[in-house]
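DATA SHEET
Item: assembly model
Revision: 1
Owner: S.N.
Input lines:
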Amino acid sequence: MRDTLSQHANTFAGIPDIGTRITLFVVITFMLIVTILLVYFKMRESDDKKGI
Amino acid sequence: MIIRPSWLHFRESSRVWIEDRLRLKPLIDLLAKKLVPRHKYSFWYLFGGLALFFFIVQIVTGILLLLYYSPTPNTANESVRVIVNQVSFGWLVRSLHSWSANLMIATVILHLFSTYFMKAYRKPRELMWVSGVFLLFLVLGFGFTGYLLPWDTTAYFATQIGTEIPRSIPVLGEFIVRLLRGGEFIDEESLKRLFALHVVILPLITLAVVLFHLILNQVHGTSIPIGIRSLREPIPFFPNYLFRDAIAWIAALILLFGLCLIFPVQIGPKADPFASAPVGIKPEWYFLTLYQTLRIVPAAILGVNSETIVNVCVGIAGAFLLMTPMIDRKARMEQYSSGFTWIGVVAIFYVIIAISLAYLT
Ligand code: HEM
């Protein structure tokens, strides 16, 4: 049991394949772009308050 | 009667709770007092903040790597393999640390050139410049000391060559080489020393210098380049400019993740000190200018060997960089010093040509 588990860990660990990595990149980029938009609106709001 | 939603109430009461205890208002007022000018070169003001951002990424990912890294010749390479192959997301943390290091050095160099061309070093910001030059040396020091830590073949022999360069510095050379290596060769002692420099000594010094640099920036505010008329109202740093910084930081994070996920950092075979050095090893890109200069200077000029000549030239260039605010007398009198601008342009061309030549040959 222990052996198969550690074999499993060895097989699946390490740098994931390019497909997984690109999927991860798309997800992260999407979240960060949404964050940029939220910050941007906050910036506009505080600029408007000061008349910038 | 106006009924306020409970989350608004919660937000307000938390704000009051924090303010009562930390008394942050004077600090926030101080930050709001600093104004960032707006003109056609304002974009370049983002780069100091970006350098700070990558430095923070380095500290966070560096601490995570420290949980598993083990600095002895027998275990260093294996421990990095464990990080990459066994630890969850270890490969990502290691890639983040390595790519962010490169981006930090690139950003610091861009920040140096932009403040140089805007002549932001003129009175009263001379010490911002001088502390900045120290920060450049420090980030290069991080690159140099971190390179050996994975103890792979390339790192081992590149550090062997790199730590040899100071030997021809007049008077101090021999001492510096032994100080870095902890002996004649790169071995366990060298790894311990470079490790201590990389994770304790350089971070502590850098934190202090960064703090000094930021406090001065707060005290003097941001400079306006000579001859630029800022027609638009300047922006208060807090919160308005900080939002712009934040957007730049998140964009930098996208770039960083892109690089790490598309080009994750690999690990080379464990170093064998008894093997012969592989042919054609080159240092990291930020040392290629120095490397290429060493290659093009003839072996000896008038009986003085090339390494001594290059070391002396590097010393002169470093001293020029440090002393720029004191030497540029025109800028000190708010006059545009085109001679200094030209020196900067020639320096950029030299760096680009040297790096390209080093890659191509
Ligand atoms: C780790 C490295 C560094 C960090 C974290 C850092 C951070 C900053 C920050 C946040 C600012 C204010 C925003 C801006 O104007 O960009 C700034 C301004 C400045 N920095 Fe740096 N810096 C670093 C390295 C350097 C270097 C290498 C130099 C030049 C040799 C330099 C020279 C200056 C100068 C002269 C200013 C004032 C700019 C102005 O007022 O117009 N800094 N730095």
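QC remark: The two ends of chain A are 66 Å apart (CA to CA).
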